[in-house]
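Worked example (supplementary).
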Amino acid sequence: MPEKDGKDPTGAPLRRPREKGRGKKILLSILRPLKAGLWLSLVAFPLVTFKFEAETRQAHFLPERIPLLLLICFGAAVAFDGLGWLKKAFGPGKRAGGILESPPEGLNRPRLSWVNRLLKSRFFKPASGVLLIFLAVLPFISSPYGVNVYITALIYITLGLGLNIVVGVSGLLNLGYVAFYAVGAYTYAILNAQFGLSFWVCLPLGALSATLLGFILGLPLLRVSGDYLAIVTLGFGEITRLVLTNIAITNGPRGIANIPPPSLFGFDLNQSVKPFLLKLGLIHSRTDLDKVLIYLIILMAAILTVAAVHRLENSRLGRAWLALREDETACQAVGVNRAGAKLTAFTLGSTWAGLAGVVFASQISFINPQSFTFMQSVMILSIVVLGGMGSIPGVVCGAVILILLPEYLRFFADYRMLLFGLLMVVMMVFRPEGLIKSARYQHIYRAPKAGEGDPSDSASGK
Amino acid sequence: MTPRAESKHPEIGAGAAPAGAAETAGAFGLDADPILFSDSLRMDFGGLTALDQVSLTVERGSITALIGPNGAGKTTFFNCVTGIYKPGSGSIFFLPEKEKRISLGGLRPHKAAQLGIGRTFQNIRLFNTLTVLENVLIGCHARMRAGLWGALFRDRKTMEEERRMTDLSYAILERYGLQARVNDPAGSLPYGEQRRLEIARALASGPSLLLLDEPAAGLNNQETLELADLIRHIRRDEKLSVLLIEHDMSLVMNVSERINVLDYGRLIASGTPEEIRKNPDVVRAYLGEDADDLG
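After joint prediction of all chains, the assembly is encoded as:
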């Protein structure tokens, strides 16, 4: 502090200016959340207190909602101000040395990020095994409604991880991701309706057709980057929806109904297997085995996606994507084919959307173009941004929060979009890097001992 | 002498050459085999001619400098060599081996890099959020073969390659004094280390020609001296040729064996540091017309 106080070189009245600054700080820390709360409630006021009725074309003023509005806005402002204070008090900045501290020379003891510590921990494998068993058993002990919600969450995890390759890892802003999702869903619906192909045949075909479309769209996209890329993909998403609405084979806006759930070796699960399991007392009488199967399929798909994306991220190809995101010119200067990296990222990202689309179609058994609007793209993008660009655990958390939270906060249904926006604003202010910041893989090298050869020989790779 | 000239380039037009530079320069005769040469290269940006009939040669194994006032077209020349710009006319040839002549005109940037041309940038361009090791691993990109299949299934060949390249990257980082930083985000490094990392990344691709764009920018005197040593070491250890853009005359005179001078896109002089120092055209380009009176 004395250095900052240039007016008192004698050093005698050092305490006074400090206390003065402190008082001002405290006053500010009270005023700041109040200001934020006021601002929030002003923004939210018309959204919450007016209800517009489409039929009568009249707006109703609902004064009884004002207290709730104020409560939410000021509460949120205070809470998040507290978060900022906590971050300051206990955040990484306060720890000794911070980011600039380097380990002692020769001793390559890495300061592992917590994600890396978790991955390298000896509890990681048993813990993930337990989690896996729990997730596998979950649908048998949940209500049919719960299973449906979990399926949706898992679909969005898969979608989020797929989009994460494009947006998070490669830095290509894709606002039309839902188009690939739609293509996957319609592939199953049409192939099943026209040719009677089963779910299991359509699952790879749906993924493949989305991949193919991603490749075809990716070709012209090589010429644009940044904002222009976002605009082109946005346009593409809308074109896809309009095409689906206007051609005969998709049955237009009426959509395709009676899409069958997946079967297991030709059995009708609810007819043939369910009584048997019921007799054994393994399941609840309300359990819908079709949904349970879908749940298990999408669970497998999500787990495989996590593994695949993790492997991709730490491979030659994934590093090329990351380099592309970080600096397009520099990545070419080290020999990365920019066009190739862009195209593979865009194409591969679409694959997962197609896969998720097939599962989605089998889950809700009826699809129409309205299931694949721009809002869906925004939703998936929000999952990636909220969770953390390029971060696998982040995207998983983002999907779980954005899908499960609204389900459990049904009484907030009217304010859902408001809370959604609020959450985004707050995130951008306090954690622009997302809930779980992406952490790069860290290598551990054994410290070189006397008499030992080149320490780089002792690399403990992946 | 005008005050401006005095403060900016004290080395030019006065003083004796360092003994070492002149000696080594003698080892590279004019007719030795080139690793890179351009023939009447021309590059226009709209009405502006950035490069005008530039014909210059980089001898194999030499440290060659490209100097000139701001806006003379030095970086444009680099960008033509590395494929970022497509030259308007003329040609550039790269000879990774004596008998192998490859035309660089209009080649895509990553192809140039794969042929063995490494470069650094004037304003450091690292992959800031990635770790130091990953930056160098991406530098190894052109040496690696693994594709989608290898990434997803991690077969033995891929993992072997991955391990080899990780070791190689680590060895490179160790050689350039960055081993303590392997896991740090590249953007968190101090400026001098970022410069070194950028060079390490360029070396990871195993280039036979290294293009350095103002490597001494932002370094203090001590660091510049270290950089001169580093450049000599690189040339010797990695057995490559260096083409260097630099404004710091002490570094240029110190390390380079041949110097090419660009002014308004034209090559106005080419020769040993000694010759360049005495060349009246160069003195005029740097110090202005008034300098003629001073002799």
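Two points are worth noting when inspecting this output. Chain B has two domains: 3-116+207-294, 126-206. The longest strand of chain B covers residues 34-45.
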